Amino acid sequence: MRSARAALGAVLALLVTGTVLVSLPGTAAAAEDVRTEDARVPSGSGADAVELDTTLYLPASATADAPAPAVVLAHGFGGSKRSVADDAQDLAGRGFVVLTYSARGFGESTGQIGLDDPRYEVADLSTLLDLLAERDDVLLDGDGDPRVGVAGASYGGALSLLGAAYDDRVDAIAPQITWNSLTAALFPSQTGGADGAQPPTTPAATPQTEGTGVYKRLWAGLFFGVGSVPTGGLLDALGGGAGDAGDDEGTTEDTTADTGGAAPASAPSLPQLPDLAGVDPAAVEQALTCGRFRADICAAYQDSAATGTLTPEVAAVLDRSSPAAVLDRITAPTLLVQGTEDSLFGLGQADANARGIAANGTEVKVVWYAGGHDSQASERETAELRDLVAGWFSWHLRDGDDPARGEDPGTGFQYPAPTGLGSTLGSVQGGTPSVVADAYPGLDGAASTERTDLALDGPLQPVVTPAGGTPAAITMVPGLGSIASALAGTAVEIPGQFAAFSTEPLDEAVEVVGAPTVDLAVASPSGTATLFAKLYDVGPDGAQTLPGGLVAPLSLTGLSADPTAPTEVTVTLPGIVHRFEAGHTMRVVVSSTDQAFALPAEAGVYSVALAGAGNGGSALAVPTVEGQAQADGGTSRWWLLLGAVVLLGLLGWAAAVLWGRRRRRVTSVVEPDGEDVPLRFEGVTKAYKDGFVAVKDLSFEVRRGQVLGLLGPNGAGKTTSLRMLMGLIRPNAGRISVFGHAAGPGAPVLSRLGSFVEGTGLMPHLSGRDNLTLYWAATGRPAEDAHMEEAIEVAGLGAAIDRPVRRYSQGMRQRVAIAQAMLGLPDLLVLDEPTNGLDPPQIHAMREVLQSYAATGRTVIVSSHLLSEIEQTCTHVVVMARGQKIAQGTVEEIVGTGGAVLVGLADDSDADRASAVLSGLPGVTVERTDEGLVADLGAQTSRAQALQALVAADVAVDQFTPRRRLEDAFLALVGES
Prior knowledge:
This is ABC-2 type transport system ATP-binding protein. By secondary structure, the chain is of the alpha+beta class. The chain is built from 26 helices and 42 strands.
């Protein structure tokens, strides 16, 4: 239970706070010194009066003589002022006066949550603007009017929109991953028109529900669960008052924020309750039920949770907290940031905000990024978003002659470069490169979005909805996005509960940027239907990917009951940024259930078909947006290179499909020098679905009789390379050959290879001998070919070889596993970290075994982090870093043929004679130190030659140690890479 609570807490920390900018560790050193001032600010009056816990960040440059523009940072739902502390420090370091605060009902602020109600939370923002207007270090536009911007994510983002609508003193805003209509977000139905045009003019135009929709049950439950923790609100209701509230930082967000996002091991403790004598029992019951929520919001949630329907009373509460109705009042330049991995507030919410604000002639810039409530942004993306927000405020808040104003950020459109990768439980390393367009299509006079029609095919299909909606399809989990990602791309659709319509395999890649649309024909005996539409990417092997893990709920009414004359419905699929590769298929799936939503209790059967099925069927209209790939700085160039590597891998796969026979003929040819080159890597690349490139363009070869050391830090790609060699995974590009034959899963030539990689794999209940016997029997080869006794001798376990493995130490298990790799005396022996768990005498013995083994003409490859052992064991070395080869050669070549050596003598009286012998060698200089003689051998004399010269002169050498070892060379090489 504790681990379950921790996992839930971690999810809540990501999804409920809705932080975009706060996901990075603290920024680099601020540009100037920043001091802070904490204060409790009264706001409101009467029963609605609260105290807001605030912190003001003041840069040293902001003075009465040189006042600075201000920024108010609002936090996400469940957070507090501490949630945005890093962002405040960053903006203050750029010269802004920054005010952070905990919204009413959160952190140490008093009061109850009103969901950004204009009467409460928005009024609180105006109070804070009054506070800023009183400071002489804040730039003013007039009496009582500070030069100020407002930013925030999710809950804080909606506040910035509403604040700009209700208080015209706000000069610029930067709302992130927030809503346009809270009603449409929690009761969505993506049917009908979106922006009054068909097809829609903007790329992610999504219908904003009017009347009814499908209740987003899991998301709403998480919201209410976080806000219903009975802390300060409970004490206020019970008469404890603000003074008794204590530290209200025991909410989920505040606890997780303090621990870097990890949930607490146990539930937070409640503050001490006051004496309940004489307290109204009704107030107690409401406080315990509703926690920190206002009574009308609590009642709206309870009604929605009980019925799953949108009543006028519930709609009134949600609409009051929605910017949708007041966008025409916003004149502050607006930077809209929305995430592509967001099943709570999708791209359609930002699209609606952009259209509504731009209709006033207000400047709007739209930025989509790879992240959202379901997936944390990468560090690079977070840093870029911080720069975008700071740049937006610099341009719109600073005076025109201020040298820190920077460049005009414009009103363009930026989105992550589309890839064919699915949603993941985390962002890929380094982030996703951006594509920049001059304008958001269809906005403020810009050209409408281009859409491509793709023919769909599929018959009319019955779709069953089970009683109570159980079992239900699993596609989206709040905070985690697509559950399919965690199941290796396997969608959890229930047979009989969905209809599917597919395109033909694509002749060329299609990049979808926005919300596709499709016309369906639906019939229902009851005249109503609840359905869920989604767009899958289906690979040639049938594997399905659900981009972003996103689903479009459909609440349909007024349907025909006659399947032969169904009602045609326009459906807007989720807004996505995704590349459908050539050879892939687009599949529209319409299901009757989804576990994240409230479902009808009654069973039924719907009929679903493509509209116009008798006239060639419906088309899937997919939006595309042309833009320029952004390549600023080395990181972006690296990602473009990564994209190129992935693209080359995909092109290689396509070539394999088209020219499979020819390729099989080529790879079946045995290389003529195969017996002399037991192993050859040629341009081998391995990239995973999340975009991570583990091995890149790796080429090297190993000759017969060599002991090759594979070196590199953790993550260098060593184990991945060995796994590809053994056929456990396939490379995306390049060729691996073993004894001249192409290596791959099941290749016969792999029988000449013995390996020990990634764990022993021994059965603990069997003895060491039985494990070896069973392993060899599984190969199907004769027992006499195993050379069992020779392998057991290598293990060096004595009588322990006949005891159960579960009694073995780690070192004993390691030795049995190495013996297992040597069964049959393979011509190529591959060992990954073979000395783990061995003591020094065992390591010494292992060294002798491997050297003797190679002396018979066989070849050994050793991957190890013990550089001294590689130096003493191996003849040759390949050094890797970040998936690439950075050096290859003999150990002496890597270390250096010369270098300095420390010469220790058995008899100090031999020092003069030893110095004379060494000085007489070509290029050698000698000096005396407290440690002994140090000889710099230069480039002409090897260590072996120097030692031989001393021995030949009868100098008793007690120590002859290189001053530069393999470790030094390795660190230098890795550092240089």
